[in-house]
TrEMBL record:
<feature type="transmembrane region" description="Helical">
    <location>
        <begin position="103"/>
        <end position="125"/>
    </location>
</feature>
<dbReference type="InterPro" id="IPR038330">
    <property type="entry name" value="TspO/MBR-related_sf"/>
</dbReference>
<feature type="transmembrane region" description="Helical">
    <location>
        <begin position="200"/>
        <end position="218"/>
    </location>
</feature>
<keyword id="KW-1133">Transmembrane helix</keyword>
<keyword id="KW-0812">Transmembrane</keyword>
<keyword id="KW-0472">Membrane</keyword>
<feature type="transmembrane region" description="Helical">
    <location>
        <begin position="173"/>
        <end position="193"/>
    </location>
</feature>
<feature type="transmembrane region" description="Helical">
    <location>
        <begin position="80"/>
        <end position="97"/>
    </location>
</feature>
<protein>
    <submittedName>
        <fullName>TspO and MBR related proteins</fullName>
    </submittedName>
</protein>
<feature type="transmembrane region" description="Helical">
    <location>
        <begin position="47"/>
        <end position="68"/>
    </location>
</feature>
<feature type="transmembrane region" description="Helical">
    <location>
        <begin position="224"/>
        <end position="242"/>
    </location>
</feature>
Length: 255
């Protein structure tokens, strides 16, 4: 299964690169009539936000290669995780192709399925680690960023799809504020439930922060949206840190 993981993740990453338009063709921001561009809805992050995918893909590649090591092969945690990791990579690639074919509603279904798979992965990561710092970085770090970013992206994707379908109310500033607040609340709840993992909170805060940046100009320029998104980003990260510290203190052995 370790070799299958390497081949599967490599194939999925290659498909994702092709689907993103990085090797030619239509970029995601320009596909589907620009529905997912940085200026399409009040919840759309600035284009720079998507640079997080470089880190996630690099982490997935390193994670897959690490599966070939004796430590990973002997890990029950990794054995359970591998099929879900492969599935997440292929769902991500599939999402990119749905956008390229202008199938926005299908893209929502796929990204929700991807989010569900990543939630399952985060649950699996609650099992004891045996690979030390390397496993912490390559597994918990990579999939934590992956989950946190997809959580934010699910809101942006759904908002864009509904807006493109003619629900113009979602393009109003008040509902934009509501969308950002709801995304922040969901991310905060996730941080509380997962014991304050920093990587997911960091990725979601990254997305929210770039929503704030995008709202400093363009079609949906709004100080209200800027400050709401910036505050949501800060609160999500703060809650994760506080929760992490609380859990660490609780698990600390008594003197």
């Amino acid at each position: 299964m370790a070799i299958i993981t390497v081949l599967g993740v490599a194939a999925a990453i290659a498909m994702a690169v092709i689907g993103s338009g990085a090797l030619g063709g239509t970029a995601v921001a320009e596909a589907a009539g620009g529905a997912l561009s940085a200026d399409a809805t009040p919840l759309a992050p600035a284009g720079t936000a998507f640079s997080i995918w470089s880190v996630i893909y690099a982490g997935l590649a390193a994670y897959a290669l690490w599966q070939l090591t004796p430590t990973a092969r002997a890990s029950e945690r990794q054995r359970v995780l591998r099929p879900w990791a492969i599935l997440s990579a292929f769902l991500n690639a599939g999402w990119l192709f749905t956008v390229q074919f202008d199938a926005l509603w299908l893209s929502v279904i796929v990204i929700v399925a991807l989010l569900a798979v990543l939630i399952r992965i985060m649950y699996i990561l609650g099992r004891p680690r045996t690979g030390g710092v390397i496993e912490l970085i390559l597994t918990d770090g990579t999939f934590g960023l992956y989950f946190g970013w997809v959580l934010a992206a699910t809101f942006a994707n759904t908002w864009a799809t509904l807006s493109a379908a003619g629900v113009t109310a979602l393009e109003e500033i008040p509902l934009g504020v509501v969308g950002i607040v709801v995304a922040g609340v969901v991310a905060a709840v996730a941080a509380l439930l997962d014991g304050g993992r920093i990587a997911p909170a960091l990725a979601t805060s990254w997305g929210l922060a770039w929503i704030a940046v995008a709202r400093t100009g363009g079609r949906f320029e709004s100080d209200t949206l800027v400050w709401t998104a910036a505050a949501a980003a800060a609160v999500v990260l703060l809650i994760a840190v506080v929760r992490r510290v609380t859990v660490a203190r609780t698990n600390q052995p008594a003197a």
